[in-house]
Amino acid sequence: MKKLFAANWKLHKTPAETRDFLRAFLPQTKTVAAEIVIFPPASSWEAAAQSFAGSANCFWGGQNVWSQAQGAFTGENSAQVLKELGGRYALVGHSERRSVFHEEPTWMSDKVAFVQGLGLTPILCIGETLAERDAGQTDAVNARQLEEGLAKAKTSQPLVVAYEPVWAIGTGRVAQPSQVAEAHAFIRRNLQEKGFEGTPILYGGSVKPENAGELLGLPDVNGFLVGGASLDPESFLKICRA
Ligand code: PGA
Fold it and tell me: β-strands 4-8, 201-204: how paired?
């Protein structure tokens, strides 16, 4: 399976900063034998769209989109607009959306289905909190979030899952390789039971150039979703070349 490296910029980079990053980054990705996706904030979608024209293995997407194209949804982002501008991917259920913005678990399947229906690829983010891990609930949480997120998903349409233990996101505390391997093996089996064969499973949570190689060598780790270390073109390139 081709590796996939995704950069979640969160609320970082203005349109000008987005163009600067991509001007430095994109020419260097021609020698990377993987697919790369950048997730700029929605306010920089258009700047991204202009910069990506003509790139063969690099794409961009939205960090959060609503499950309807338009309507009375003040402040939300439209997947229809994402598609119109040339975006290819959408994150669904990132832990910051779930915890900071209180997104409901019941929204996830509608978002995944709507994104798939537009011909875009959803990246469904799942993962346990530290309290849940300490209580031995890691598998149960991942199973529940897969169930909730994929209830309306089509096995015939593209899908990516990102396993991001909440306690490893932005903390500098990366999960141990054995913890990542166990979780990815569980998620792989769960996806197969649901009929999602060949779904790439990304790991996310404090991925850096220094730990990318070891993590990428684990079975069922098909790439990364990178936050902090994706904000600098050189650092993210090192991860893409791991
Ligand atoms: P991090 O973020 O790499 O900064 O831990 C990952 C994410 O939130 O997707």
Answer: unpaired
> Chain-wide mean pLDDT for the chain?
96
Indicate the length of the chain as a whole number: 242
State both tokens at 107. Answer: 């929204």
Instruction: With residue 52 as reference, give the H or E element that holds it.
Output: helix 45-52
Q: Is pLDDT of 180 > 80? A: yes
Look at the chain and report how many structural domains it folds into.
1
CA 42 – CA 25 distance, rounded (Å): 20
Q: Is 189 left (phi over 0), alpha (psi -120 to 50) or beta?
A: alpha
pLDDT-derived band at 172, boundaries 50, 70, 90: confident
Question: What are the tens digits of pLDDT across the range 6-23?
Answer: 999 999 999 999 999 999
Rounded-to-integer distance, Cα 71 and Cα 74, Å: 8
What is the CATH classification number for the domain harbouring 216?
A: 3.20.20.70
Q: Which token pair is 147?
A: 């169930």
Say how far apart CA 148 and CA 105 lie, in whole Å.
6
Tell how far the Cα of 125 is from the centroid of ligand 1, in angstroms.
11
Which of 8, 64, 123, 129 should be mutated for ligand 1, with most atoms under 8 A from CB? 8
Could you identify the atom of ligand 1 that is nearest to the CA of residue 162?
A: 9
Query: What range defines the domain where residue 104 resides?
Result: 4-240
